[in-house]
Amino acid sequence: MTGYLVPAQSIDVEEVIKNSQFITRIKPVSSVDEAKAFIRHLNQTYADATHHCWAYIVGNPSSTTLMGCSDDGEPSGTAGKPMLTVLQYSGIGDIIAVCTRYYGGTKLGTGGLTRAYGGGVKLALEALSVTQKVNYQTLSFLIDYGQLKDCEHLLKQYQIENLQQQFDTQIGISFDIASEEVTQFKTTIKNKLKGQITWNTT
């Protein structure tokens, strides 16, 4: 199965550590702009909070460079980075975690903060439902009737949706294929049909 795991829904968990309240919210996001909009929303809605620390990963967690984090005023490296580290180890993409802290009067120290923020994300992830996300790309091409059996046999080896065939002087075939398989499929079918294939540009 190609693709990657993403949150199936939003979730929030709450902890009280040495009189400080930590609320960790996790939400599925499909872009950096959406992630930043969620951060702004929490900053405005809960403006009385002491900190809104955050981390996000947009895209496939095994290959994406679209990630970021912030300590939002906490000592450097004690909040955003441990939160991001937990997200990276989770193998979940298209995700943002924001941990809202209401300071309770007792300092936790750098180690305590790291455990609190990273632990909040771990706690939320334990309760989070996930689903598989696959990005698809549409391919369309023409082949001769004598090539149909080879083509159909090849298609069964790939993750495709919405297969359509149109029979005319040639056979028009179109379908959605997992984006990660496009390059391999094009190379394989070109070799299988000895280059005798006409690609439609749509």
Topology overview:
Blueprint lengths: L3 E4 L3 E7 L2 E9 L3 H14 L5 E7 L9 E4 L9 H11 L4 E8 L6 H18 L3 E4 L2 E8 L4 H8 L4 E8 L3 E8 L3 H11 L5 E2 L3
Antiparallel strand pairs: 1-7, 2-3, 3-6, 4-5, 4-6, 8-10, 8-11, 9-10
Structural features, described:
There is one protein chain. By secondary structure, the protein is of the alpha+beta class. It folds into 2 domains: 4-132, Ribosomal Protein S5, domain 2, CATH 3.30.230; 134-199, Alpha-Beta Plaits (2-Layer Sandwich). Helices cover 31% and strands 34% of the residues. The chain contains 5 helices and 11 strands. It has helices at 32-45, 80-90, 109-126, 148-155, 182-192, and strands spanning 4-7, 11-17, 20-28, 51-57, 67-70, 95-102, 130-133, 136-143, 160-167, 171-178, 198-199. The longest helix is centred in the middle third of the chain and has 18 residues, at 109-126. It starts with a strand and ends with a strand. The model has no long low-confidence stretch (mean pLDDT 92). InterPro entries: EFG_III/V (IPR035647), Impact (IPR023582), Impact_N (IPR001498), Impact_N_sf (IPR036956), Impact_YigZ-like (IPR015796), Ribosomal_Su5_D2-typ_SF (IPR020568), UPF0029_Impact_C (IPR015269). Residues 18-124 form the Impact N-terminal domain. This is YigZ family protein.
